[in-house]
Structure formats: C-alpha cells, structure tokens
Amino acid sequence: MQDRDWKAILKKVGISFGVISIIFTVTVGGFIVANLQHMGRLARVVQLVQGDYLEKASFGQLIDGATRGIVDSLGDPYSVYMDAQENAQLMEQIEGKFGGVGIILSLKDPKKLTVLRPIKNTPAAKAGLEPGDVIMKIDSQDATTIDQEKAVSLMRGDPGTKVTLVVYRDSAKKTLTVPLTREPISVPTVEGEALPGNSDLAYIDISQFSTNTANELASVLKNMDMSKYKGIVLDLRYNHGGELDAAVGVASYFVKPGPVVYIVDNQGRTVTKLAEGNFLGKPFVVLVNEESASASEIVSGAIKDEGTGTLVGVKTFGKGIVQTIFPLDSGTSVKLTTAKYLTPNKVDIHKKGIEPDVKAELKKGEEATISPTDRNYDSQLTQAVQILRSKIK
C-alpha cells in the first residue's frame, strides 16, 4: 500500500494522521520512525471494521484494543495495558484498600486461578473457600480462559454488590458454587506477636508490600516492644511482593546501612536503594518458599547477601524485574517492565530464585501455619525456631 493510499483511508474513516502517528510511531535514539507498511495494515483493518463489521465499534474502542495488543505482543506477563477500571483497582491494591471478596491467588501456575489463601475475616474466608480451590467461573465468565489481572478485576467491585464463584476443590473431588457479597477489604500487611509457646521470640508475618507496609512494620515493632524479645522469625512465605520502596523500608530493619538493591534499566543505568539505618541488631531467621516473590525477594536477597539473618525454607519464586505504571488518558495506564534488580552482591535472581541458607520443606499435605495460634507449627516454622534458638544460646 502506498503512502497516499493509507492516508486516504485514514481520512475516509475520520482518523487524522497525527493521532495515529502519535500512537503508533516508535522513538529510537531521538528519531521518530513510522513503519508505513504496518501503518497501512492498521488503517486497512480500521476501514474494514468501521465499514463492514456487523456491530458498531467506536474509534475509542479500537484504540483501546490496539493499545492492549501492543503491550500483549511483548509476551511479558507483567506488562499490561489497564483500562480505567483496572487501573483504579490496581491503585486500590497498592494502597491496600479495595472492595472485593478477599482472595489471594497463587503465582505457581499463572494459567490456573488457584486460591493461595482467603484473607482473614473477608467474604471468601467466611464462605469457607480454601487454599488450593481452583476458580472455574466468576459469575457467567469462564475463568479458565482469563488471566489473573482480569480475574481480580471481576471479583472486585463496590461493597454490597454480589458475585458468584464456581470453584473446583481437588481434595473433595467436587465443584462448589459459592455466592459472595463484596465488602470493603482493608488488608493489614504486617502482623506481629509473641510466638505461641516461645514468649521470648517475636513472630512477624508480612503478607505483601503496599505503600504503607514499612510504616505498619514500624508500628508493630513499637507496639510489641522489641526489647522483650531475644530473636525474631520473619515470615515472607506466600508474599508475592508489591511496592519497591516498601521493600527497601522493611529491609532497613534487617540489614545494616548500605545497599539493599540495585535497579538497572534498559540503558544499563543503575539506581542504588540504601537501607534507612533502622537495623534491629537481633538474631533472626526468615521463612521463604516458592511463592515468595519480587519485593519479598528484595528483602530476602539483601539479608542473604549481608549475612545478617538465616533464610529457611525452599527456593523463592524468581521475579527479579521491576514494573513502572505510566498514566495515560481517561484514567487508563500501562504497566511496563522497565528494569531488573540485583541483590547487594549484584546477583540477578530473575527466573532463578534465591536458595535458602537452610532447606526446609513442608511434608506432603501439610499446610503452612501462618500467624500460628498455638504451638502446632508446620515443619518449616519448627526448623526456623530450632535454628533461631541455636543463635541466641
């Protein structure tokens, strides 16, 4: 297709060359380069849809679809285009407050919507949803064909509204229909208490890293009065990560002043994130597992490299890349992978994970005792306590 042909098509369907150029050109080394052949293909598709497609399709709808397609074409599961609703929901998640049912999904198999755990005192927990339940339908939507971002957006909504999940429970070999009413979900990301049966040991669980997690940790430590404890168990199991600066803030309590993480962009430029000088100076162990990812690996990697604590559990997930959210028009945004991170020893853990200092596995069928209420600890926590005891004798 010649230059004048696709310009004519654009004019015919009411799309200005300037608008399409802004959206579909690529900036390389300061020069704007437009691929005319591909522009022609795009213009032809727009012409066909607006001229021959059975249903009406607005220009805005086509731009949304094309923008989403550009990001999807990268083949990066962490880079996504978000419409206004999806973007608002992500901001709520980062802030730790949203309307929904209270389900955390597992990262282990991104093609399967598996419940990692329901959040305490939420509709999902009250309805009896269990870790391992596989979500098959969300209302009328077949959940086996959608990604986690889409699933989360479907389950969230205004408090008081209803959503019905169909889940398959492998342990019972049956399918369950679970009607739920959404509630305001305010997720405390840090819980701390004396470890049951070991009153001189502090147990701290961090479930994710939201914008307020470092402040939450500071508050928990103050309320617990850490002078009463000889050692700490830091539980980062099933922590999928979250906000980068929150991870640095948390790590500052567990490593001495110095680098926590190096952020390296696509030009090789490096930003060094430093500990904030809050090191507790107490013996501690860190529990990690195969679903400890991203920001939790920043904390774990810094601790392992600096040797201030002992990592106990199994190899972590291996997400060593950083995403940046770029606001677009009309409340939309694009989340792109913009950098990788390296541990203080310049180790790249992406798709490799972090090996614990001491390997400890759960027994077959055993569930992790997150925030235990009695002394019936799981195998990993039991070993963590034994190691911590050996440090404080």
Structural summary, described in words:
With 393 residues, this protein is of the alpha+beta class. Helix content is 30%, strand content 27%. It has helices at 3-12, 17-24, 36-52, 59-72, 84-95, 123-126, 148-155, 213-224, 244-251, 295-306, 379-392; strands at residues 26-28, 31-33, 80-82, 97-100, 103-105, 115-118, 134-138, 141-142, 162-169, 174-181, 183-186, 190-195, 198-206, 231-235, 259-265, 270-274, 284-288, 310-313, 321-327, 333-342, 358-359. The strands form 6 sheets. A 6-stranded mixed β-sheet has the order 12-13-14-17-18-21, with helices on both faces. Strands 3, 15, 16, 19 and 20 form a 5-stranded antiparallel β-sheet that branches. A hairpin with a 2-residue loop joins strand 12 (190-195) and strand 13. Helix 8 (213-224) runs parallel beside helix 9 (244-251). The longest helix is centred in the N-terminal third of the chain and has 17 residues, at 36-52. The radius of gyration is 24 Å and the shape is globular.
Low-confidence spans: pLDDT under 50, at least 5 residues? 9-34
> How many E-type strands?
21
Quaternary: single chain
Instruction: Kindly provide the radius of gyration, computed on alpha-carbon positions and rounded to a whole number of angstroms.
Output: 24 Å
Alpha-carbon distance between the termini?
79 Å
Tell me, briefly, the overall form: globular
Number of helices: 11
As a percent range, the share of strand residues is: 25-35%
Structural class: alpha+beta
Chain-averaged pLDDT: 88
Q: What share of residues is helical?
A: 25-40%
**Major beta sheet, strand line-up:** 12-13-14-17-18-21
Largest sheet: 6 strands, mixed
